[in-house]
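Task card 7
Instruction: Convert sequence to structure tokens.
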Amino acid sequence: ALLWSMVTSHEVNKAAALDRGAAELLAQVMAKWEDDSTILSVACGAIASLANSEPAHRKVLYDAKLTTRICNAMLAHESVESVQLYSCMAVWSVSANNQHRGERVVAEGGIKRCCSCMQLHLRSAEVQMAACGLLCSLSSGSIHHKDVVIAEGGLQRILAAM
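Output:
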């Protein structure tokens, strides 16, 4: 929680945290505490904040294989709204505007998990918005990703969210 708080609004803190190994630390925390939905929610929130700025930050987070950890958290804690919300935000932020990073997310079942969380959390406008953002981001620029979104029921989920 302290890391998330430190990096929420300060670009200098984000760069310093990543320079000092925050991405690797987050990966270790998510692996060690994979059964704790509260810790995973906070870790995903921190990742979303760190990635939601400089493209170089996204690369560092991607290289630490955090999208894998996030997709695993989504699967393990499907019923926990905060995990789903911050996971969608984190994956969206890390993979934004980069088809290569989106490939890993698609290969790891990120689109399926995203559609599942939209189905399970129909009444959460925040989850719906974050999940729609992730699906749209993954779909932009890749016909294959668009096909996967449609095949996994993403188009229906987006329409239902409207």
